[in-house]
């Protein structure tokens, strides 16, 4: 009986998670297209293909939905980037490359939400904006740590890890912000490889260029 109950609970949780993802994806698309202030719950329900009542089962207000859309992306960073790093070895530059790719992959999955963050973040409450700032610091930590490890190992020059990690984050976000432009000439993989190669050229220890030739070639 216990196993049956556990399975039923797990199934309900999976359905709730899937429904929440559906609503957040629809909200990101609609709010990016129309602006958060112009979006009604009825319009969101139509975009998601659900009833207004169902939306209120998950979210209490439009502002709550906007915050949830942004936090959803940051939660994905918190899971996906460390997982990407874990798939490579101990070399700090390889780990940095994996972290950057993982960051870009999250942005690619949530392009509408990433653009929405820039356009509508100011609409959040002060508490909401502070929560987003705190989460952004946390999710860029794997990049900063890989850079610091690369400096310590002599693979990277003596650069400021905070600055370089922030630059890499901006490059990742640019895939969403300027997607209409980049997609004309670059695939996602080409964008990631070439942007990382350009960044690495600026921070790699000159004595280590041969070691990381493949990454530098993009």
From TrEMBL:
Signal peptide: none annotated. The keyword Secreted does not apply. Residues 40-59 bind DNA. It holds the Pfam family TetR_C_24. Residues 17-77 form the HTH tetR-type domain. It comes from the Bacteria. InterPro entries: DNA-bd_HTH_TetR-type_CS, Homeodomain-like_sf, HTH-type_TetR-like_transc_reg, HTH_TetR, KstR2_TetR_C, Tet_transcr_reg_TetR-rel_C_sf. Keywords: DNA-binding, Transcription, Transcription regulation. Coiled coil: none annotated. This is TetR/AcrR family transcriptional regulator.
